[in-house]
Amino acid sequence: MPTVYLNGQFLPLEEARVPVLDRGFIFGDGVYEVIPVYSRRPFRLHEHLARLQHSLDAVRLANPHGEAEWTALIERIVAAAEWPDQGVYLQVTRGPAPRDHAFPKVAQATVFVMPMELTAPPEAAVDEGVAAITAADNRWLRCDIKAVSLLANVLLRQLSVDAGCAETLLLRDGFLTEGSASNVFIVRAGTLLAPPKSHLMLPGITYDVVLELAARLGLPCQVRPVTEAELRAADEVWLTSSTKEVLAVTRLDDRPVGDGRPGPRFRRMHAAYQEYKRTVMRGG
Ligand code: PDD
What we know:
D-amino Acid Aminotransferase, Chain A, domain 1; D-amino Acid Aminotransferase, Chain A, domain 2; 2 domains; nine-stranded mixed β-sheet; six-stranded antiparallel β-sheet; globular; binds N-(5'-phosphopyridoxyl)-D-alanine
């Protein structure tokens, strides 16, 4: 049973309890992060904490900790867990209060940090690619906030589970936004295309890494809106997230993407990503 952090205490997961009136439970009134950790070294921690600050500001919650405090807390959780590779889940809610939509006058935020085992995507998913479906993006208009109220994402993800697929790619007003729990890139005529950050998608930390690596690899790249037609005609489609890293989508809505195999740019990007991870693990 892993050790977790809850409101100032380190304790076994099974002993961690939150009051039922917590606004995270009642309203989904809270924000979260998932931080990958490789060989016990947090990956892009500063960037994850900066995105947490953005989410907290957006929902008008004060940050309960400064960056140094968060870092110390996360390091302690990571050190206590049994796995070298982890996904550290971190959640801040507006805390317990009598049920009322309006913010409570006095509220004590609930802070929870939990380690989870992180396993790299299976070799078959990397070598063969994965299948995905598309669906209308029916989420709210603040998808840039990493909010714990994930009902729309949960329902959209389940559509792909029901179809035996790895992800649901979301389309809004004829444009690609992202996946139910990942960002999406396409390759078209040798150019990597990435939907621009906006209120319509989560600004992925892996998304930023992939754009940086694309520049290093000299891969032509454009950050601009991607149409549904471009998605459907793409030579390559990629998913990125902290847990999926970079994966190729080789079937979309039951049709092959490109020649139905992970493309050459995906292979270069995947290799570059693995190399970059190794640098981080060595402390670079
Ligand atoms: N989700 N878009 C959505 C809607 C996401 O939920 C995620 C990640 C991403 C990718 O962001 P990043 O590269 O920073 O992981 C994009 C996490 C992993 C989750 O909810 O478990």
